[in-house]
Amino acid sequence: MKPLRTTRRLLFTLATMAATVPLLAQTPYKILDKWKIGGTGSWDYLTVDSAVHLLYLAHGPRVEVIDTTTGKPVGAITGMKGTHGITFDAVGKLGYISDGGSNAVVVFDRHSFATLTTIPTETNPDGIIYEPVTATVWAFNGRSKSVSVIDTATNKVVATVALPGKPEFPTTDGKGNIFDPIENENAIVKLDARTKSLAATWKLTSESPSGQAIDAQHGLLFAVCDGKQMAVVDTATGKQIASPAIGTGPDAAGFSPQYQLAFSSNGDGTLSVVDTAHGFKTIETLPTMRGARTMAYDPATDRVYLVTAQFGPAPAATAEVPRPRPAVIPDSFTVLVVGRK
Questions:
Q1: How far apart are CA 144 and CA 115, in angstroms?
Q2: How far does Cα 109 stand from its chain's mean position?
Q3: What does the alpha-carbon distance between residue 104 and residue 72 come to, in Å, rounded to a whole number?
Q4: Which of 75, 91, 259, 289 is the most exposed place for a label (fewest CB within 10 A)?
């Protein structure tokens, strides 16, 4: 029999270890609901407005607005050509949409969903983010390989910063720094919001980074890449410190500060969940639906929202389009709700 003092020490150690990992964080995620949105056309980024329980979905020439408490559409921002990303100001008043088809950023009222103004940018704005220290919106232009910086006080472009390649989904640490994957250069750039300049370019060992999330408290980036890897990058040094396994065809990422989990939504129909507090281990691979490669995470409810549709056969390949995408079946556009309770 162990001495009483040893037994107590063992029990204390086990209790301490258990306290470092929230019990809920050990519970597998599952699909809780499916919301049939319908409509036609392609889709891109999703953004959650947690404070008012709304989910914004870029859906072809429009942005759908869904009530996350009911799963029902409550509005839409329309009149665009090809939407990509959505971001919000810090005061709950304005939203900004990158309309890649029109080479512009659309500003809308978050209460009425009415379009207020349109701001010209360079070619094909895609990823977009609000930076709180400078109160600026950064629209990353995919084809012109640049970023347009918008002053939210005037809703005017105040700077254009050249980038070393094709930008993807940006993140910010909330301290005046913005990070963006450069897909065709296997790199991540760091931008200084105060000086509106390129501060650093960091090469990755992983290939074709696209979606990205950030743990601002611990200074970590999570960029989803080809080759079934998530690149974990130290924001202080720019070094890639881990490469946990994920699914194929990822396009978006998310992070839970409360549970220290990173997510990758993958086109192969899986959601990868990585424990970032204990060795960057992949702790779950949840089957979702084919094509569900874009996502948004709501930290207020611990919900992951993914979007996809049903697909028909792909058209015949041509010299111009050697790998054509399969056709989307009309009215099959669906949001998947993933959670644990």
A1: 25
A2: 22
A3: 28
A4: 91
pTM tops 0.85: yes
In the chain the first and final C-alpha atoms are separated, in Å, by: 41
Find all residues with CB under 8 Å of 274, minimum gap 6, and list them.
Answer: 222, 230, 244, 246, 261, 262, 263, 264, 280, 281, 282, 283
Asked if 100 contacts 82 with a C-beta cutoff of 8 angstroms, the reply is yes
Q: Can you tell me whether residue 32 is helix, strand or coil?
A: strand
Return the amino acid letter for 219. Answer: G
Taking only the tens place, the pLDDT of each residue in 68-98 is 999 999 999 999 999 999 999 999 999 999 9
pLDDT in tens, 97-133: 999 999 999 999 999 999 999 999 999 999 999 999 9
The position carrying tokens 């704005």 is 125
* Residues 18/26, Cβ–Cβ less than 8 Å: no
Task: Residue 285: name the closest of 310, 265, 301, 259 by CA.
Answer: 265
